[in-house]
Amino acid sequence: MSKILIVDDEAGILDVLQCWFSEQGHQITTTTKGDEAIRLLPQIDPDLVITDIRMSPVDGVQVLLAAKKYNPIMAVIMMTGHLTTTSDAAEAKKLGADDYICKPFQLEDFGRRVEIALKLREQLRT
Questions:
Q1: Looking at domain 3-125, what is its CATH homologous superfamily?
Q2: In this structure, what are the phi and psi dihedrals at residue 3, rounded to the nearest 5 degrees?
């Protein structure tokens, strides 16, 4: 069972992802605020952070940077519902994101990508 922190300013997205990943056997913590996510990092010590990019006042990039500062091998997946370019995804990966997902997404595809990120992190730990 992996611990996943999910951050999105849309409560509906959080509800869907919490339900889906809980059913997959993961322990889920959610928040609608980036600053709260940063405060939660040492409390829950997640294996994976899934964060929306565009939030205010603390955005997903700030959450990504804080997660990597807290634990450099922590898996982080960025997501956005805004039109993006390949340079946005490249920038997120350059900053340490493991993956970049656009909304709307297919839950099965999202689940596969989460499992890949978690397996890669597990390999880095051993």
A1: Response regulator (3.40.50.2300)
A2: -95, 125
